[in-house]
Structures are given as C-alpha cells and as structure tokens.
Amino acid sequence: MQQGNAVWQLEVLWSRGSAEFMRKHRMRSQAMKKTVAVRAKVMDPHCSLKEVYHENLKQHRESDQQRTREYKKELQDMKARVTVRPYLFEQVSQKNAKADAERLYRDKLREAGLNEQFVKTKGEEFETTPIFKSDDDDDCDDRSVESDMEKRNGNIDVWEKIEEVEEESVKTRVEKNV
After folding, report:
1. Where in the chain are the domains?
2. What residues of the chain score a pLDDT lower than 50?
3. Can you give the pLDDT at residue 40?
4. In Å, what is the CA distance from 28 to each residue of 10, 21, 42, 136, 139?
C-alpha cells in the first residue's frame, strides 16, 4: 500500500513539474555530454597530452577574454550612468526645490479652502468627462478670471525656481565636463 502511494505521489509531482523537470534534465544531459566529450578527448590515444594541454589553455584564454570584455562593458555602463546622474548636491537642491513647490501648493490649496484629495479626485473626474461649452458659460465673471490668473502666477514663480535650479545643475555639469 505504501509503495503504491509513493508511486502515485511521484506521478503527481512529475505531472505538475514535467516542464521544469524536462528543462532541468536537458540541462544536466548537455552538461554530461560536454564532460564526457572532454574526458574522451583527453583519453583519446590519437591526441598527445601536449595538444590537449594547448587546447585547454586556448579555451581558458578565450573564457578570460570573454569575461574581460563583459567586465569592460559593465564598467562603461556604470560610467555612463554616473555621468548622466546629477551630483549629490544637485540632487539635494532639486529635492528641496520640489519639496518647497509641494509645500507652496498645499499652502495655496489651504488658503483657497481646498484639500489635496478633493483636487485630485476632481482632476481625475475632469480627465474622464468630455468638455461641452454651453451658452450659460458666457456670463463668466471677469473678476474671478483675474483672481485665478493671480493665483496661477504665484504657482509659476515656484516652477521658475525649480527650472533655475535644474539649469544651474546642468551648467555646473557642463562646466566640469569641459
């Protein structure tokens, strides 16, 4: 009874992972074939040990050269990433400028009596709903338009600060690369 149960469990495991089992089996078989071929070549009486030694030496040199090429490629990739990335002080100044802009945004929302979540949901609704202009929209108050423009101008100042910091970081990077 136990033997039948064990066979059944093996069949279940094999059926679940048959693809994985076959892939691993194929990889093991290929490795085994390669090992057998190398050992048969070493044991071949037609080849001298000197030839086998030179062949192995050649294979090791090729693998070393391949590893060296891969290492140089990785090193070049790292250098490219480092040169593109802004300096640490530039990252900090950009982060501070972003934090200042976000703080100013929250303050302006608070002054207007709005909360951030409300603006976010309304913005998402605005993106999903089509805009249709009605005849009633022509009666818009000019004073409200002017106050909206003033509020927007306050936000533009913050974005100008962020752009100035980014321009300075680009200038310093260009100056240091030259």
Report:
1. 32-85, 86-132+140-177
2. 1
3. 76
4. 20, 10, 21, 77, 80
